[in-house]
Amino acid sequence: MAESEVLRAPHVLEYPYVRSVGPVIGAFLTGLRDGRILGARSHDGEGAETVIVPPTEYDPISGADVGELVEVGQSGAVTAWSWAAQPKKDQPLDRPFAWALVQLDGATTAMLHVVDAGSPDAMASGMRVKVRWRPAAERQGRMQDIECFVPEGANP
Fold this sequence. Notes:
Blueprint: H1 22-33, E1 38-43, E2 49-52, E3 69-71, E4 75-84, E5 97-104, E6 111-115, E7 128-133, E8 146-151
Antiparallel strand pairs: 1-2, 1-3, 4-5, 4-7, 5-6, 7-8
């Protein structure tokens, strides 16, 4: 067989499924759609109150059911970060950005999201950031409803 006669067969591997998010994660996603960030109130193994963001249905330390959902702040501190100098096609921003763990005001845990800081020189652990929301008409109850975080003092 000549090289020009190579046979090809396209193959798509996919896992189509629908996931029920349940009452805790469902409320969190609805909050995002509405421009609010919710966390789950819980207690660590020694009785101190914690607020888990994003909320989980069970406390990750004790395994106990979490308590009520509470609104947390829309600003917080970067606890760790890594710079993405050449974003890939399916990443959240089409320009360089930081993947960061952000501990929102009122939360005990940090959540992973992106920070649009412009350059790695503008990033630092401990820096304050705030949410930049997608326009309300575009929100769908997904993590992407938070377009990104930006340094506090930056224009939204």
